[in-house]
Amino acid sequence: MSDTHSRASREAGADNDSDRHGLDREEIRQQAEETRDELRDAARQQAEGLIDRQKTAAAEQAEKVSTVLHKMADEFERQEQPYFSGCVNELAKRSDAFSRTLRERDLETLLDQTRQYNRQHPALFMGGAIAAGFMLSRFLRSSSQDGAQGY
């Protein structure tokens, strides 16, 4: 009888251990999921913050381009070049609109508009992407040269 009693108590203890281990595993799994969700949310917030800062910087650069274009249009006007003045004024207006769009719209809306424009005008989109890449590379090259000359 003592064998039966000790076996029963060992089995009961084993059942308690498996319940305890099962609960521990479940708690660990839940904690891991919570940690994963927290990390994902933190990464998303950091990415959104970075994108917002880049979007603001791009809007500021577009405003600077607009200012230069307006001055250029004024100069063409002074030189009595109405055709060129009109063309450059149109570019300046579009640069103003682009800057305004960057400031006013959220990232998801901008991405949707970009996808839609890409579907409607693939050749213009590719040409614009190539031109933007070229301008960016020139800007980065001139910025690095200016920084190297400063030392």
Point out poorly predicted stretches: 14-18
Residue share in β-strands: under 5%
Distance between the termini: 92 Å
Give the averaged pLDDT, no decimals.
76
Q: What percent of residues adopt helix (DSSP H or I)?
A: over 70%
Tally of DSSP helical segments: 4
Tally of strands:
0
Structure classification: mainly alpha
- Based on CA atoms alone, the radius of gyration comes out at 31 Å
Net shape: elongated
Order of helices and strands: HHHH
Major sheet = none
How would you explain this protein's 3D organization?
With 151 residues, the chain is mostly helical. Helix content is 94%, strand content 0%. α1 runs antiparallel to α2. The model is unreliable at 14-18 (pLDDT under 50). It comes from Billgrantia zhangzhouensis. Residues 1-43 have a biased composition (Basic and acidic residues). This is Membrane-anchored ribosome-binding protein, inhibits growth in stationary phase, ElaB/YqjD/DUF883 family. Residues 1-58 are annotated as: Disordered.
